[in-house]
Predict the 3D structure of the following.
Amino acid sequence: MKAPAFWAGGLDPRSREAAPLTRALLTPLSWLYLAGLRRKLAGAAPEAVDIPVICIGNLTAGGAGKTPVTEAVRERIMALGLRAATLSRGHGGREHGPLKVDAGMHDYRAVGDEPLLLAASGEAWIGRERPLAARAMAAEGVQAIVMDDGHQNPSLAKDMTLIVIDAGDPFGNGRVLPCGPLREPVAEGLARADAVVLMGEGAMPADVAASGKPVLRAWLEPARPAPLVPLVAFAGIGRPQKFFDTLRAAGADVRDEVPFADHHPYTDSDIRMLDEIARRDGAMLITTSKDHVRLPQRDRRRVQVFPVRARFSDIAALDALIAPLFKSACP
C-alpha cells in the first residue's frame, strides 16, 4: 500500500490535497474501523505463555522503524545469554505457521519480507495465530519472544510493549485510518504501552510527553559504508524518503530516487524500468535490505543493498528496561 498524499501532516503541502468531500466520505469508515478495534480490545482475553513476550509496535501504518528495533531488542536479550527469537505475522506470505523461518530455504512469497530479513541475523518465526505460534516457540526451547508488530492485536499477552514513533513524522495528519495513518488515537495506544522509542531527528511529540512513558531515542545508521559510485536508489517501504535521506546522510551520490508502495513485489518490468534509469544516469542500483529479498533472484547480485540498524543513544537505558523480565531466566 502506498500512503495517500493527504495523510501527510504539519506544514506538508500534500496534506491540503484532502478536500472536505474526501474527508467527509472517509470519516464514517474511520468511525467504523475505530469502533471495531475498541470492541476487539475491550472483549479480548489475551493468552499468556510461559516465556516473556516483548511487543515492538507502532501507532501508524508503516514506516516507523519497527523491524530494526525488533532486531536490536532481540540482540540485547541474546547478550543476556538467552535464546531469543522474533515473531511476525508473516504479512504477504502464503505460510500461516507456526513456522521457524529458514533464510536459505524460504523466500518472501512464503513467509513475508520482514521475517526473512530478521532470519538473516537471528532466529525468526511466523504465525498468523500468535498464541499458537508462541506456544510452539516455547516448546522448541525459545526463552524470549520479540514480537514485530501486534500492538493492536490482543490475542497474545505481552509482558512489555515498546511503541516505535518516527520523530520526523510522528502521526501524519493526526487522523485514524482511512482518513489518516493512525491505527488508533495516540493517547489510547500510548496508554497500553510501557515505553516509547523515538526514531530519528525531531522534537518530542506533545502527546508522548503528556503520556509520561519512558522515552528512548534511537536512529537508523548504516551497517556498512555507502558505495562510492553514482547511485539510483529505490525502495518499497513505509517511508521510502527515509531510506533516500539516510543514503545521502552517509555521503552517497544519489542521482535519482524511485519510491514504490510498501511491500511492493518487484516484477521484470520494474527491473527494466530501474535499469533504464540507471543507464541514463550512469549509476548503480541500490535498495534496502527488505526490498532486496523481494527482487527476482537473478537480479540480486547486481543490485547493491544498503543495510541499516537501530542505534540507541543510551543502550544502558534499553537494557535496564528489559532486563527485569529475565532475572529468573538469566544463566
